[in-house]
Structures are given as C-alpha cells and as structure tokens.
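Contributing new records

If you add data, match the layout below exactly. Sequence lines come first and carry their own label; structure lines follow with theirs. Keep one chain per record. Anything else will be rejected by the validation script.
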Amino acid sequence: MSSPRFTSRHSVKAAVLAAALGLAASDASAQVFKDAALNALYSAERLAELDQLALKRLAAHADDAQAVLATALVAMISNDSARREAAIQRAEHCLQQAPQAAPCHYALGSVLGIQAMSQGAMKMLSSVGRVKSALVKALELEPQWYTARSAVVDFYLLVPGLAGGSPKKAADIARAAERPEQARALEARVALKEERFDAAVALLADVKPGADTAVADDLQALWISAGIGLLGKGQREQARAVFQRLSKDRPDQAAGPYGLARVETEAGAWAEAVALLERSAQLKGAERLPVDYRLGIALQGLGRSDAARAAYQRFIAGGRGSRNALDDAKKRLTQLG
C-alpha cells in the first residue's frame, strides 16, 4: 500500500482505518512476500501479472496465503469496491482453513480498513475492532514481518483515542522491532504524526536500510511526509533539502522531483514546477501521485489554460486522488471554462 501515505500515503488524515497501507517489498522478514515469484512481480510493479498468477493459484488452493495476500495488495491499490470485497472474502476463506496464516490476517485487516473507509464514517467506526484484531494477529504470528508491524503502528496513529488509537502504543510497537533500522523508521513515523518534523528527519537520516528493501521503500514515503510536513510549516528550504536528498537516493522514483515541484509551486516558480512535474511523470511511482493535479495548478499559474484544463481532466478521469484534490480540480476546471 503503499505507499499511498503520500497522497493526502498522505491521504491518511481521513484514513482512520487505512492502517494497512504500510506496503513494502524484499530475507523473508523484510519483504511482503516470502514467495519469490510473487515478490518479483510485486517489486517490479507488474500488478496485473501478479493478480493473474495469484488468482490462478487460488483456483487450485484457496488457502494459499501468499496468493491471498497478492490479490489483497492489488485490491488495495485499485479504486474498485467489488475487487476489495472479493479480496476480503478470500482472506476470510483462507482463515477458515488456515487460522494461523499471518498474510491472510493482514490481508483481511488491510482491505477491510480501506473498504470501510470508502463507505463512510459509520462503517469505519463499526469496523475498527475487526481491523485492529486482524492486523494485531498478523503481527503476533510473525513479529519479524516489517509490513505487519508497520500496519499496526499506522493503526494506532490513525485511529482516534476513543476507538483505541494511541501514539504511545504506536511508539512501543515501533521500538519493539527486531532490527534497529526498522525501529528508527517506525519511530520516525510516530514523530511525523506528532508533527515533530525535525525529529523525524534526524531519525530518518540515521536509517541505513542495507538489504532491507521493505524499509528502503518505506523510507521513501517517510521522507516525502517529512518534506510535505516541513513545507506546510513554511520551512521551504528544509523541505527542499529533503526532496533533493530523496531525488539523489532514489533517482528512478517520481517522488523526489514531485516534492521539489511542490516546493517550487509554493515559491511561485511555475515554470520550474512544470519541468519537475513533467520529469516526475516519466518515473516509477508517478501513477500513485497526483502529478496531473499539481501540473494543472502550475500550468494555470503560467497562464497556459488549455494545457491546465487537459491536466485536470486527466486527473479527474483517473479518480485516484484525495477527495479534496479531486474537488479542487473540478472547481478549477469549471473556472477555466
């Protein structure tokens, strides 16, 4: 799921139950999948092939926990309620046959959380207990699995206190990680939630993921959150430094240039923002970012109304952005005529 934290990955201020979006990828404790074939497809972002292979395996063995997890991750990334419902049913069926399958508990909690979130506040509140139970069980069964620990940390951070949320619980779960790089990354997430951005940056700078690609992928999302958080506090140059580092560390990823474009947009440097967004659109992960929305704003700032209109139309048609972004894009499109 990802991560997804960014688009509000971060989209989370309304995602009371989107605690399962701690997606990452590859040692067995540092990957989503223990299955090499599924993990290879997931890491390469070949999601259609991942889904097809998983469904083929489930047709033969409905309790194939790794395949259940694969269809759940695809469902989480999709904008398809029916697909999410099918993923929930597969997870439930898996747990009937294999109640100790951590991937199936994780799949159930994660997809149920997103599905409930999409159905409104009452559905979210009524599903909190079940989401928590599933995610916590996944972590209990496989405490070394970073993906499960990440989801539980997110759950406690995102759920209101009256529903069981607690930054202290989240911090305790983070510090209990078996590896120091995992603990620091998750502690940084807690700091970000509490808007202690300088502390988060210091923690992130000290994370050396090495071969732990799950942490490496999560690290990218956390750096993004730190940069956007700093930008929101008016600390533009600190945010710029964060996104420059991200661009250097992950030059193949869209997030660095996207973040730098946000900095340039705040400075009113529209042409620079357009160039960065056009570059971002060509890199990995661009489909998970509201690139066209931000591009429309920058083009509008340059007075390029036709190009801005086209960018907003692409963004709205994709339907992947946060509700606020989609509403704003529609409003701007109307203003452009």
